[in-house]
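Treating backbone geometry as a discrete language has practical consequences that deserve illustration. In the encoding step, the backbone of a single protein was reduced to a row of integers, each denoting a local shape. The amino acid sequence and the backbone structure tokens for this protein are reproduced below.
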Amino acid sequence: MGMLRLPLAGLLAPLVAAVVAGACGSSPAGSAFHGADGGDGSIGDDALGDDSPSLPDGPCFICDGSGGSDAQGVFDVEPASLQTVTVTAGQMMPTVVYSATLGGSPVGAAWTVDRGDLASIDAGPSPTGTLAPTGTAGGLVNVIAGYNGKTLQRPVFVQITATQNGSNATAPGESQQIASTVAQLGAGGGVGGVGGEGLGGPVTDMATLTALQNPTSNGSAQNLTYLYPYDKTVFPRGLLAPLIQWAWTTGDADAIQIQLKTTSGSFSYTGTFGPPPILTQTGGKFIRMPIPQDVWAMATNTAGGPTPNNSPDQLTLSLVVAKSGVGYGPISETWTVAPGLLEGTVYYNSYGTQLVKNSLDSDYNHNEYGAAVLGIDQGATAPVVVAGFASPPNAGTGCRVCHVASSDGSTLIAQQGENYAETSWYALKNNAAETQLPNYDNIFGWAALSADGSLAFTNAGDLAAQDSVSQLYAFPPAATGATPLAVTGIPSNLQAGTPAFSPDTKHVAFDFLGGTIGTTAGNGTQLVSMDFDATSNTFSNLKVLATMTGGMRAGLPSFFPTNDAVAFHYQIVNSNHLFDTWSPSLAQIWWSDLATGTASDLYALNGLNAGGGSSYLPTASNHPDDTKYNYEPTVNPVSTGGYIWMIFTSRRLYGSVATADPYQSDPRNYDATQVANATCKKLWVAAIDLNAKAGTDPSHPAFYLPAQELLAGNMRGFWALAPCKADGMSCTAGDQCCNGYCEPGEGGLVCSNTPPNANCSAVGDKCTTPADCCDTTNYCINGFCAPGGVQ
């Protein structure tokens, strides 16, 4: 997804013409959750952009290097050995000149590169080609030369190095990370979309600089440790830069030094920073700072790519803290970067939002507050209102919550806050136009929507506006008079709690609350799945995914994009609903596969070390164990960068930013306008390994979802794809296109209805089986070629 589109056919004689005519476009940089999968990091990954011409992908692309020979002699390109180019940010770009010969004599070859995000080369035809790094990312790039039906490739390893002392408001992305007013600290998603006080200023004191460069203490006596991010996190590309948060008994700092390095040496950065200037107004301590956005983009678009020795290229963060002329540290942690940009938009419930006021009562300060469904869009540092509007004080008519979204991004349903029995549906492809459904009270609350939003399977669980029994409806229903569709395979008295369709709409999962299917009677202790045939509305093949005991519950299932497993909310302690997040509710996220029905804890996601050992999460007196404050999982309907991506609600500490009591999230009970009171009820994201073995833990430590409203209580995030694009529109991957292909066109990559030369599909393009993919090691997941990921 987002990779250079490379056909298998047309390599030899047409090479020069392909070089002259082809030009791939660029994929978006920046943040958030539209965008494309940057692929598996192999040849063709263009997460930052690709200016290289259309050339073959797959096995034909890797030639033997000999160039072959004929009556004219051997085709050769020099230098043949691996070339290493070191690019220092802000300095003149080095180049590498390649020469093409036939039988020792210069010939006019066609030139291109396989990683246009790393380097460019004049297309020719010419006896020489000069490779010039872009300076925006490092890694392995191959120069490809073609002449008279023969091709050769030559490897170049681009290394990026950079240094920085203090923030740079003119640098791309950094301006939004610099706070100029105290009000910015609590507005929207906070400074840079992640909270905190923003970037620090330069360090001018030589003694402090010396202390940072030559620490004399490792910080262990001061308990110097990271609060956030977590070690071993898997990050995608295209994310807003995370907020580094640390703790130590000294409590304050004069300056910090951060280093980001890839294990291969493809990227190396050192930045020194004094306290953020806004601290002079707040009087706060220097205990956190984001990674500069432009540095983060460069680092993540480098890490995760191919390396000369084929070893994983992970990213390591090291931190040194200086106080009173002494440097402490470094403390380090290592992350994996998935070579892909996350797809779609996140739709989530917000209670206490400042973006719209529509409450039935007043908040702690005797003011109206808001509740709505919000969305996080690409590049934003704050969400926008999707469902909900302002209403007169204490009327509540504009409140919209308790939502469900279809995975294709076409349909959203939400309950009306002044009367939870009533449902509104939203056409997300039509500017989220609202249609109220007053004639269908207590039917569609928390219903399962099919992938395209055309079917709704109703919820009979004990939640807002539940149906008395579970029924299948065409959706949206007629204004009046719609009746349930005729179905087979389930009883008329079925009570399915919190049901969910798989992305391919061939399965449904639910908490089996009542009714009898075959010989199995529902009593609320089992999470089950059934096959579903949408052509005949037939349910079949009941499978038990989890059996709960001791009053525990399993519900709110969400299918993996592979359609063969679900994540679910494992309720340990209930309050007054079957599945909720209020005091004293405790829950964790588990998973189970349809093949064996083996339910397993996602230990790493929940905050536990391997095998369910000790917690790695930070603690506080009011947060002694945050591993049981994880709720409501939903899964991105496509895989990205070789991973599945899961979003969930958690009441865990967000470092030193959100540290209140875990259950503090009702704006009627506390002053929700103060940054110090930021609720811990937030959305988090974790990577899940593809095709994991049943009974194992395929999860990784989670990261905080950027751009969510900092001062509001946020929950129940749904990832949905952006509306598809018509042929001819700009794209970065085929899964963005209505006809399934994203191919080179005039001026860049555009949506198409056929793969190049009607041949194989690149990563992100449409497929029916893995055999359709140019890279035969790819999976075909929900109709699109996807890499297998890092295990």
